[in-house]
Amino acid sequence: MTNNMKKSCKINILLGSRVFWVMMVLAGLFPGLALPGCGGGGGSSSASNTETTHTVSGRIAAAANVVVDGDVNDPNENLVSNNSQFEAQEIPNPVILGGFVNVPNSGDANGRFFSSGDSDDYFRVALKAGDTLTLIIGEDQTAEMDLYLYDDQTNLVDASPGSEKTKFLEAPSEGTYTVRVNAFSGASNYTLSIGTRNAENTGSNLTLSSDFVPGQVIVQYKEKETAGIAGNDPESRAAALGLTFMAGGEERPVLLGFEDEGPRPLAFNALDIGAASMENPSMDPVQLKKFDTLRIIQALRKRPDIEYAEPNYRVCASGIPNDPLFPVQWNLDMIHLPEARDVTPGSSNIVIAIVDTGVLMGHPDLQGQLTDDGYDFISSSSLSLDGGGIDSDPSDPGDLSYGTYSSFHGTHCAGIASAVSDNAIGVSGVAGAARIMPVRVLGKGGNGTNYDVLQGVRYAAGLSNDSGTVPTQTAQVISLSLVGGSFSATAQSTYNEVRAKGIAVVAAAGNSGVSTPGYPAAYEGVISVSAVDISGTRAYYSNYGSTIDVAAPGGDGSTDINHDGYADGVMSTCGNDRSGSIQYSYDVKSGTSMATPHVAGVIALMKAIDPAITPADVDGFLVNFLIVSDIGQTGRDDYYGYGLIDAKKAADVAFSGVSSAALKITPATFDFGLLAENLPITAGKTGDPGAMVTVTGFSDNADWLMVIADSIDGNGLGTYHAEVDRSSLPDGNYSAVVTFSGSVNATPVETIVRVYLQMNSSGKTPDSGYHYVLLVNPDTLEPARMVEVVAQNGFYSYGFSNVPHGGEYQIYAGSDRDFNDLINNYGESFGAYGSIDQPMTITVNGDMNNLDFPTELSVTLPAHNSLSGNISIDASNPATR
To answer: Which of 593, 629, 659, 835 is catalytic?
Structure first.
């Protein structure tokens, strides 16, 4: 493609005869969106002979544990066939894999596999018992994929057929397995995540290993009004499907069954089901009947007269928390939220205002949590995307109708703060029963004005504002996951008024990785929040400095240290409008934007216990280290302020009870992956700050592992690190346990840390596939230059020459595995200089080198309800906006 690259008068970059557009969902505050068309400003595609020019260069780090399918649709990618079990591609565990499959004559017409198809991808991987596989299908709504798992004797162990966009399988025992991704229809990117901890099976995912009754299906018909008409009674309708009516009523779900008739049930003919895509003669009769049941359900779900179809699952009593994505919410464990919930479930009398892009009011994991008196304060018709002017509808319309995808940033922040807990779907929020007041102040591209923001803040606080009204109940906490501008006296005065009313204001420090104060977080009386990653250290993008008050989980989408198969960002509620209509979903995002609602949620928990707590009280708790874990340098420091927010300590302080102290070792589990040589460990105490907690010794059970104390106090608390010696280890997966012995108030305790390591002597290093690096005009977001790069030793080196002096640009990079000329489609690798959450704009006043940033894999989880899978709404329907 490089030889065919041209520059047009509109500064579009042409690949062959087609325009290469940057269509990007940026997970943070100001989503950048590069569209085709004429552009001005700093993005120039050429320089005159007399114009001063410079070079712009850097390196892009390929994400650790990310692997690329050997045969994707982009002809520029290396081609290594993995189309059969005999050609299975070896992959490590844990892993996040980006791939592509299609049936013949589907996908981009210029793609590598348009005519021939690439229906199957096979991967060979060593799994431990309980390791989970998650297949997430990309944005193409016509594509269907099935996921299969085979043992080392090619016997089918488990399968997940069906039209759902997310599939889950689990390894039943330790061994070497073959994983098959099969294109049942259409063409799409996908991600395959493998890890020891993963999201639980949500919604209507079908798996062969699930405990259900073979030969039985629960069905709800759509056309209830036709019930009772001749030929539409339950028995006749079942017979027309090749099934037998077993139980149920005309206006409620029915239980249907089938018996084997010859090689396949009668329903296969009635429902036009062909031979199963994989016949396996080693299947026993029960397993085969279960497989047939899933095929029938898959066919029923496609019928227009079926509301839903599902297996007749066997059930038993269980007390396990049922938010299915809770296992991947490492951020909640980090701030000790489960322990805090033992003190308080939160209160619906407490309101958190999310002043942001608005909220998807119909998201299933926010139902019952949203107040009905939110407001939209976007005054600019060019930003509002909903007709212009302020109004009483705070819902987020998205911006797909204007030629791009949407971030649904406010919905993500709202879910972190207070998504419904223990409702059998999705995620769990920090603040428990606290309600969310959605206040929309950011519109197109995630942009807004300080004035509109202040109007939203004033409204939430019950102060006079341009709407001429105030909410029924003012917010007790205001969360601002936004940043921009310099000091404003008007803003400072507003925040002083808000604080005087006893309302706490929490704001994001910013994502530029600099020590310069960011506003509104740096205003006096506003709590400034920095971000930590999954290791509990400052995230690379997080701002720092003298104005930082507290740290909270913000994540890092370029790593998977806890080997759960997901990037280490923060999982929360979100939306996805890439298909043309808004789908409720869950997504992993990173940034101080994500850290901020954690702190807002913790303050809401405190006020649920003691509503009289004031902003000054919160300040005192911070200064005295009563609601934080002191990380970093002892005492306050510029990275973490007074420390990492601690929900358990906060709840205990608010309740004024005696807390339970504990020896806390973090992380509890970590993975050296293929490359890491040492990783940090922190031994600290949690709970009662006056408790005596000690570490008296530590040990490990592996010859290749060593734990060393770095900086510890007289009680053995402080920082350690674990380092590994790979020199004599053959290929394979390794695990070990580090045991810390100590005491809590003289009572002996032991805490363990689980350690994982992978070896691959073939020299595989991180490689996220062929990448396109774009120099982009920050005003129009049109690409001005493009270079194409491949990874070497885990990094992509890029450079732009003859860049005009004084030009302003942003830098993006991504893959195009489905070859549709769009980077950051689902399942693509993608990155931005600065961060995806907040890209940095550079001004080229000289040669600029070392502009380095990581690339990461785009992973979004679709939302499910309890019965029928993905929830879709029509974005053009006013009733849903």
So the answer is: 593
